[in-house]
Amino acid sequence: MLEKISVSGSCGLYRMDTESIDSIIASTPETRAIANDPRVMGIEYTRRLAGACSRVLKDLAESGLTCLEEDETIVFNILRGGLNFGLREALADAYGWNNHGSSFISAQRARDDESPEQWHIVEGEYAKVYMPETASIVIGDVVATGTSLEYAMKALVGAAEHQGTDLRSVVFFTIGGPRAGEILKATDAMCRQKFPGYEKTTLVYLEGCFSVPVPETPLKIKITGTDLLRREAVMAPEFIESQYEDPGYPIQRCTIYDAGSRAFWTPEYLEDLEDYWTRVKGLADSGMSFEELLAERCPDLDPGRFGDVDLGVVCDGQLDWILDKRG
To answer: Does the predicted model carry a pTM greater than 0.70?
Structure first.
């Protein structure tokens, strides 16, 4: 399912078997740490994510997979999740640039009251969008349902039309699921129809294209429309192998948890972690084993490679760290 593009000690690039857009899975030490270890948070988290994006941007260019020019490139920030990726700095570090621009749009989603599995935009009024005559767009966002991304991409295309800009390409970074691909394919088709000079869309999944739970997903603990799961996911080989480094890694509730609070308001993020591990501790106290939880959350792994793991002990370690950080 994955075609190797380039692999080094610092970055692996793999192409997914998709149509119409270039869908890449990229693996780096920084994003493996983020996706595996929830203790990577705050400034450490955003710096590692920006560093990973810079590394991937450099390797994409060396592999001939991007067509970015400094004076044409705009970082399109979807507030607030897009700020996590640090793409303005990542481009500067990867290519030595200084003149690329940044634009901003707000797109805050919420569940529908009458249909909780449906989402809508509740705040999307702020926009500061700059466009040169010809523009290549670089974007990053966490994508589960894709509600914010779909809204933002339509706004991006509309702004380009309004300003008379000829869009040339889109490079999109995500820690996310398959909905990102669906939306980017639709955006690619729209751009090819509206902009004669449009060349390509590149979608970069960091570590994997993760699944998103629905009510029927057989997990004892899940948040539908939000969690990014390892089960039924397409993941980089390096990321799969890294799961064996610590038994806590493959049984995390979510690959990223809430990206906004993880970066910008860690007390809320720590509450989220404490809630999950307290509930897992309850499962362990009721007799659930590590092997049983692993089979739920990451069923393709070999439990024998972890040795004899006590799920309760794993939970105690996670909770002790959380309580220490919360003071």
So the answer is: yes
